[in-house]
Write a structure and sequence with these properties.
The structure holds two protein chains of two kinds.
Chain A (H helix, E strand, L loop, with lengths): L7 E2 L3 H6 L3 E5 L2 E6 L3 H10 L2 E4 L4 E6 L3 H8 L12 E7 L5 E11 L2 E6 L4 H10 L8 E4 L4 E7 L3 H8 L11 E3 L14 E3 L8 E7 L3 H10 L3 E2 L2 H11 L36 H10 L4 E7 L11 E4 L2 E12 L4 E8 L10 E5 L2 E7 L11
Parallel strand pairs in A: 1-3, 4-14
Antiparallel strand pairs in A: 2-3, 4-10, 5-8, 5-9, 6-7, 7-8, 10-13, 11-12, 12-13, 15-18, 15-20, 16-17, 16-19, 17-18, 19-20
Helix pairs in contact in A: 2-7
Chain B lengths: L7 E2 L4 E6 L2 E6 L1 H7 L2 E5 L6 E2 L4 E7 L3 E5 L4 E6 L2 H4 L3 H4 L8 E5 L11 H7 L3
Classes of the chains: A alpha+beta, B alpha+beta.
Chain lengths: ~375, ~130
Amino acid sequence: MSDPALLKHTPLESAHVACGARMVEFGGWYMPVQYSGIMEEHRAVRSASGMFDISHMGEVIVSGPSALAWLESLLTNRVGKLAVTWGQYTLMLDERGGVIDDLIIYRTGELSYFLVINGACRDLDLEWMHDHLPSDGSVVLQDQGNDYAAIALQGPDAEKALRALYPACDIPKRNGIAPLIPSLVASDGIVPSLVARTGYTGEDGFELFVPVAHGIALWESLLAAGVKPCGLGSRDTLRLEMGYPLNGSDLSRDRTPLEAGLDRFVGLDDPEKVDFYGRKALEQQRSEGLPSRLTPLKLSVQGPPLRSHYPVLADGVAVGETCSGALSPSLGEGIAMAYLPEVCRIPGTQLEIEVRGRRYAASIATLPFYKKPSL
Amino acid sequence: MNVPADLRYAKTHEWIRQENDIIIVGITDHAQAELTDIVYAEPPKVGAEVRAGATAAVVESVKAASDIYSPLSGTVTEVNDALTSNPALLNTDPFGQGWIFKMKASNPAEIDVLLAPEAYTAQIGQ
């Protein structure tokens, strides 16, 4: 691992160490990968509740009279359909249609928006935003990434835990955002504490944003409420079981959201969506046909856990490689995502994934890999 | 961390137990704790020639695949098939039911290079 002294640190680090975390490098950050064990943490989120330090993610506030028009040009789906207190998953593309980042945008006021961006590309995202900001001052960009500690509280029992801690909070509905009341900052007024009903696990849950100075207290109160500390290891298996892409593994500047199967977050067919960076490239790609598509795969046989960069073969010929892979803790099966050419979908094509020189039969799966048992 | 007194250890966290002319190989308690939840094990094939310090098996946790090195050179005589269906034995009983393979050593002098329990204990900083 890189020297921790050279990495970026979240405000919750001492709490992780106190919880027995195993710390690793992730996207330039020193982060907990697990505490009690990835399987156990994964199961806690699927069956009860778990919490993740997401303070490495960036918070950006966009405001000003031209905020909406500018965001429409920056992001792939229509920002204008968001009423105040609502949020949506979206993508920020370059002119070639490549994914700079996937993010969540919440409308927090008539003219203000709260964006949560990936930790590993905070600087690049902000650079792109600054470079494309109108010069007349009609849009104000505030980087609050270092002002917030953030915790994702996820799982079927998340709401119960949140209610116990914040009985006065008007808990938002799915994809909504609300002040976390009683606000932890009523007195110091640096940044408002917020709670959003979002997450990346496929479970009900919340993302809590509080001023850095209050992060540890929030972590400890959730811990006292019985919420299990969970690291990046289970965060990865949970998101992959749902087929949610991870920027840097499944998404990159070399792939478009159409190739990634994220069409529903791209407003190409929305008559009210105006031009945005990457739109022309996407339209061209759509008319020419996609060179490849992000394809969910699972092993058809018993085999090793799947990981990134394993070769994928169709009828014995290499056609791509896995970009994400895991042994699904919920299913007990190897699952993966790979960009594959359309020919791989022809029925009868024999797909294989190669691990350490051995080939294992695989098949195309449907997303999500993991479907929640109906009650 | 358990370091049984009757075994010899490789710096790479494998142990050996001598039973007459057969050597049993596994990973240490320290190794299994570092690897965390082991979900897959790929032992060598019976009859395979292994070399001291070279990869002989692979074990995988949810997060990573790790090579297991043979502490000695020789021929694999038996592998622990129970690990295929229950790789967690490597976590729960690394010195017993979690053994990985048995071998015949071709150069018994290599045993002298392995660590005594005290030296291995010192290496893992207990």
